[in-house]
Design goal:
The chain has 88 residues and is an alpha+beta fold. Helices cover 24% and strands 36% of the residues. The longest helix is centred in the middle third of the chain and has 14 residues, at 24-37.
Length: 88
């Protein structure tokens, strides 16, 4: 299955695409590098499964806050497939 994840920066206007990553750990590393340039919040999305995760940029202690959001129940009802617990 495709492990490609899209990374977006959350901006006042909505979201801005920052790139793609092959897997969650690569996405987190990319976000960590991007947030040193300009702190902010990010959204990681699998367009294949609908899985998404919001990542708050590292604070002063370098820790990242993560909120995991499975695909919406509406999408699961529409497709008849269970809500995934992981993007791949």
């Amino acid at each position: 299955m495709d492990k490609l994840l899209d990374i977006f920066r959350i901006v006042p206007e909505g979201v801005r695409w920052m790139g793609s990553a092959e897997g969650l750990e690569v996405a987190k590393a990319l976000i960590k590098a991007k947030s040193t340039e300009q702190p902010g919040d990010f959204l990681v999305v699998s367009l294949v499964t609908g899985w998404k995760m919001e990542i708050k940029a590292p604070g002063l202690n370098g820790a990242m806050a993560v909120a995991d959001s499975p695909r919406s129940s509406i999408a699961a009802k529409r497709t008849g497939s269970p809500v995934p617990s992981h993007p791949f």
